[in-house]
Amino acid sequence: MDLMHVLSSLAWPVAIGLGWVVGEIVYRAWGVPRVAAYGLLGFVLGGTQLGWLGDAHQTDLLWLVHVAFGLTLFEFGFRINLNWLWRNPGFTLQVVVEAALIFLLVWLACGLLGMDPLVSWMVAALAASGSPAGLMRVVNEGRASGIVTERSLHASAVQCVIAVLLFKLAAGAWTLSSLGDWGQALWNSFVMLLGSAALGVLFGVFLPWLIHRLGPPVPDTTLPFAIAVMLLVSVTLAWKLSPVLATLVFGLMARHRRIGLTSAQRNFGALGDVMAVLLFIFAGAALDGAQVLQGWWIGLLIVGLRLGVKLGVAWVGARSDGMGRDKALLAGVASTPISVFVILLLEQARVMGLDVLGVVAPLAAATWLLEIAGPALTRWALKRANELAPPEGR
């Protein structure tokens, strides 16, 4: 048997095991979020750095990565209370304005730097997004609860939806401009969005009905939810829809169909923990070190614009919502990360033939910066807001 083939087949399992060890060490020694360590390790081992992880775009690997993200998005969607957003229109408007300002400023900056208008649009859309994966892992890791936690989660949810809409519009425009095919352009934008949301609604209605029909007792709902997410991800990938939007809508529907997650394990238990290690190592491995170095200063500008708008809008909005400026600013900082969401949206674009990450070095740099620093900023903000639970065992 070829030794190199054996070693290459072991690369990802070994990386996952090593990632868990490194994550535990840095978390226990310095309180650094585990996901930041996973991302940094993936970056070092992948790409043109050490190159030990090989091609990060393997079909089987991508399926696992999408399932890992789908599990997180489902749990994230279940945390979102649409009624709360409806009852707090000032906050909802503030989040929309924040996303619009980030989009506009980054789009203008990219245009001034000579980028193609359509690519600038995509970069700006992604810069305005949130990071459900990073937020959920840090929140669950620290067992955080409170107004800063809830606001950062709800802001991230709204901005993720806005980013998906803007990104899919750009994908449709790219299809039309490059292929001249109106049908394919509509598929890559509106049909993909509607189809993905419809599938999420279907799963969100059917699974609660099925659990109700089976009757008590259902000792652990982790299993049916996890299987449903795997199936939903598989269907959306087979039909070239958006697993990101579908699993998020699935979680939202499950919440509003009054199906409790009380008997399900946080983060989907050990399965979710293993998948999270894989997910964040993949996100790091998908970035190329040469591109990160090439676009670092523009990437830093994108990060600065994003953080500056968040803090500015929070400062102004704090006057009217009665939350207090300190906590409003901390909520803005807590929702800073974007990395995994960006990587998986770009992976969908790559499947359609549009390799944005491969040609836009500043986006790679911004993603790398927020993949490593973002979770640490989130944890810092939640700690300053006194919303992290005391360490277990104390």
From TrEMBL:
Keyword Transmembrane belongs to the record: yes
Cation/H+ exchanger transmembrane domain location: 22-346
UniProtKB keywords: Membrane, Transmembrane, Transmembrane helix
Major location category of this protein: membrane
Keyword Transmembrane attributed: yes
Molecular function GO terms recorded: antiporter activity
Location within or outside the cell: Membrane
Protein name: Cation:proton antiporter
